[in-house]
Amino acid sequence: MKQISNDIFQINLGSVNVFLVGDTLIDTGFKGSTEKIFSALTKAGKEPHDIKRIILTHCHPDHTGSAAELKAILKVPVYAHEQDAILIEDGIGGGRMHLTPGIINWLVYQLIIKKAGNSIDPLFIDVKVKDGDMIDDMRVIHTPGHSDGHISLLIKDVLIAADICANVTGLAYSTLYEDIKQGRESILRAASFNFEKAVFGHGGPILKDAAKKLYKKFA
Ligand SMILES: [Zn+2]
Ligand SMILES: [Zn+2]
């Protein structure tokens, strides 16, 4: 686990990150990630049952794949945006996507995304959230484009950006978008908030001037 701030940790599961914010787990990785998440928690001196809630940033299988299993084991409520919640409850891992141009995107799609397919173990979303909702001290920012019901979360000076863009080999668009134009608008809207650090579903964190860097890259 990589510490991002006082109570925010990034757990790297290989091709995707999940986050622990206090007692909240944000995203769950592909199906089969439960043990990896639990062992990361244990290594950091925490316990699986310290998790009191799960928030899903969006419906894609690399973020929701282990949600049903984790919910069954931990018996905690799961939150997601109302638009992606409908898909998750039907076991659908996303709408029609378009590949962002570039060789790396093509490779990521061929090697990881295509293989994962588009179905997930369905689960009931206990709390459907929308833009502006507060979950304790986390502000929900609806950031559609990558998926219709994609959310980012703002916690003090940290943005959990999820897949609005990626930071694998520097800041860049995510590999896939339902609507990249809308995705860009969402990045810029997220960047209009005040935060120093940003973390992503894919790639490393930005620990300084993150809002400014996002704006500069995509404006
Ligand atoms: Zn995604
Ligand atoms: Zn992702």
Automatic annotation (TrEMBL):
InterPro entries: Metallo-B-lactamas, NDM-1-like, RibonucZ/Hydroxyglut_hydro. The keyword ATP-binding does not apply. One of its GO terms (molecular function) is hydrolase activity. Keywords: Hydrolase. Residues 15-202 form the Metallo-beta-lactamase domain. The keyword Ribonucleoprotein does not apply. This is MBL fold metallo-hydrolase.
